[in-house]
């Protein structure tokens, strides 16, 4: 066989009809439902996602990537040696399957076949692929999610004054352009339009960055204040870092919002002129010289679905910017939502700090401890797991080492499940709170009860005075006395206080009652026994001398 020319179908430039009817109509292309674009994320949930991600990174790492299966296989072989993909992913047959599947999902766009010189090579040639625009954006977001830190995102507070200055520069430039156009200086007007486009693009990029940072920060803040497993040290760190940072962000937003709203109101009155000036740039993509016309179909040079304008070139972009700072009936602004979220976040953080540092509230969550215990159970053998369970939860076998109380009718061999029920308070059973809730009712006045208490107190005082009189009359001869029970009780109280005041038994002790005027002294005396007579019997204190004296009472 001689040499043949390459197929014309593989090298003929595509027209607009070819772009709409050719093999590029895969995945979500040709569908009116925008939700079909979500198929671009399918490779992230596949079992072979590591190989798919490596292929997509290869296509998105360079501009205008046009790769075949052989080139992809060679690059995957290097990744396979580094351990970044599973073994076998660099095989040519596997790479062909992966590329075809990515083309079905819409991530890759099949292009021309590889150039060949013979019919034998033509039968073995394969498609070359290019990455679609939306697939590039998806992969860029995937790499960003995999690389971003899980902590709080720093909010660039310096962007707010930059946004205010950008709005002022745009307003000033629009006025200069109108003045120059009336004077007929086309060169100066063109330069001012370029400055205006630069100011608008910079403004929207700064606002997008600031809004995204605020959303990420408050999303992290919401996940923190909802956690109940933070240790006191961690909660203290969040208290000092987040509370101060949240308050700082909120103050900056509120301080710069008012001048920004004034600038947006001034630009609202000249928005039509602003959009006209942005669309009238000589180097704008909407002009006829920016994109070549298709030769096979008459009509406008640019189709709307093929063009994504720069930010700030549409009225909806300015509406979104204004809605972030200015509220409307039924739709509060993002600034108002930020202020409310800040108030809720500070309240929740203070509540959690109080809960963690308090002593009378609900016990903090034990999620971290339980996860650690679960890991121990997962690593333990069956025998060790039983011992671990017993040690962790304290469920030992019942051992009765003492007699039951007289009021406990349950027998020692009776199961706790069959015993009497234990009363559980409503707060403990429903909410786990031990502290009493509800309003404490004031104590009402009870004249009869008060009179009864006063009468009872007077009777106790008279009985004590009578007992003190008995002790005073019998102080010289306690052995032959017949003390009443109340008098003997007062004597024993003084005796216990006098004994407690001694450091050693050889020392003497004294106890005095200034109200009744009684003073009792105790001394150690070998061979002497002190006796105290009473209606209950005789109290004998061996090797002890006791003296009872009466002084002037404090009445």
Task: Give a summary of the structure in a few sentences.
The protein contains 18 helices and 6 strands. The protein has 555 residues and is mainly alpha-helical. The N terminus is likely disordered.
Using only CA atoms, what is the Rg? 46 Å
Terminus-to-terminus distance:
139 Å
Give the tally of β-strands. Answer: 6
Question: Which class do the helix and strand fractions yield?
Answer: mainly alpha
Biggest sheet, open or closed, and with what strands and sense?
3 strands, antiparallel
Region (Disordered): 1-31
Pfam families: DUF2397 (PF09660)
Protein name: TIGR02677 family protein
Organism: Nocardiopsis ansamitocini
Which SSEs are present, and which pair or pack?
Layout: H1 8-11, H2 16-21, H3 49-60, E1 67-68, H4 69-81, H5 92-105, E2 108-113, H6 119-124, E3 127-131, H7 133-147, H8 159-183, H9 186-225, H10 232-269, H11 271-279, H12 315-325, H13 334-357, H14 367-379, H15 382-393, H16 426-431, H17 447-473, H18 485-500, E4 509-513, E5 518-534, E6 537-550
Antiparallel strand pairs: 1-3, 2-3, 4-5, 5-6
Helix pairs in contact: 3-4, 3-7, 4-5, 8-9, 8-10, 9-13, 10-13, 17-18
């Amino acid at each position: 066989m001689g040499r043949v020319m390459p197929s014309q179908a593989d090298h003929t430039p595509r027209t607009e009809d070819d772009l709409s009817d050719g093999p590029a109509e895969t995945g979500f292309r040709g569908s009116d439902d925008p939700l079909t674009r979500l198929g671009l994320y399918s490779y992230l949930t596949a079992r072979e996602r590591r190989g798919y991600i490596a292929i997509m990174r290869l296509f998105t790492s360079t501009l205008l990537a046009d790769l075949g299966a052989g080139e992809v296989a060679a690059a995957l072989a290097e990744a396979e040696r580094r351990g970044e993909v599973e073994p076998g992913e660099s095989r040519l047959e596997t790479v062909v399957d992966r590329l075809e599947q990515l083309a079905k999902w819409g991530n890759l766009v099949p292009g021309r076949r590889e150039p060949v010189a013979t019919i034998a090579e033509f039968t073995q040639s394969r498609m070359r692929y290019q990455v679609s625009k939306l697939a590039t954006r998806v992969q860029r977001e995937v790499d960003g999610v995999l690389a971003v830190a899980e902590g709080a995102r720093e909010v660039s507070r310096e962007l707010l004054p930059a946004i205010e200055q950008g709005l002022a520069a745009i307003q000033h430039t629009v006025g200069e352009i109108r003045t120059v156009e009336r004077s007929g200086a086309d060169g100066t007007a063109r330069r001012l339009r370029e400055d205006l486009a630069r100011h608008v693009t910079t403004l929207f990029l700064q606002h997008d960055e600031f809004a995204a940072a605020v959303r990420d920060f408050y999303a992290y803040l919401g996940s923190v204040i909802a956690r109940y497993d933070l240790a006191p040290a961690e909660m203290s760190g969040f208290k000092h870092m987040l509370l101060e940072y949240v308050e700082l962000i909120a103050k900056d937003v509120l301080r710069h919002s008012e001048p920004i709203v004034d600038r947006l109101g001034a630009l609202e009155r000249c928005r039509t002129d602003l959009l006209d000036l942005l669309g009238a740039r000589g180097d704008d993509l909407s002009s006829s010289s920016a994109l070549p016309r298709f030769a096979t179909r008459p009509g406008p040079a640019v189709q709307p679905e093929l063009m994504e304008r720069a930010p700030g070139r549409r009225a909806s972009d300015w509406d979104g910017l204004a809605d972030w700072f200015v509220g409307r009936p039924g739709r509060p602004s993002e600034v108002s939502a930020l202020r409310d979220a800040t108030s809720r976040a500070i309240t929740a953080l203070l509540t959690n700090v109080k809960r963690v540092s308090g002593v009378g509230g609900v016990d903090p969550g034990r999620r971290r401890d339980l996860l650690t215990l679960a890991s121990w159970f997962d690593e333990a053998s069956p025998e060790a797991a039983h011992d671990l369970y017993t040690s962790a939860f304290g469920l030992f076998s019942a051992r009765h080492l003492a007699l039951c109380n007289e009021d406990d009718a349950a027998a020692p061999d009776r199961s706790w499940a069959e015993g009497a029920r234990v009363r559980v308070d409503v707060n403990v059973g429903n909410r786990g709170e031990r502290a009493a809730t509800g309003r404490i009712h004031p104590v009402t006045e009870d004249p009869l009860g008060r009179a009864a208490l006063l009468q009872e107190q007077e009777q106790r005082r008279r009985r004590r005075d009578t007992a003190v009189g008995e002790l005073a009359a019998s102080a010289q001869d306690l052995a032959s006395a017949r003390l009443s029970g109340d008098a003997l009780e007062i004597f024993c109280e003084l005796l216990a206080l006098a004994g407690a005041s001694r450091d050693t038994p050889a020392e003497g002790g004294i106890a005095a009652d200034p109200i009744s005027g009684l003073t009792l002294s105790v001394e150690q005396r070998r061979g002497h026994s002190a006796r105290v007579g009473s209606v209950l019997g005789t109290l004998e204190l061996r090797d002890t001398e006791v003296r009872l004296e009466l002084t002037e009472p404090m009445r």
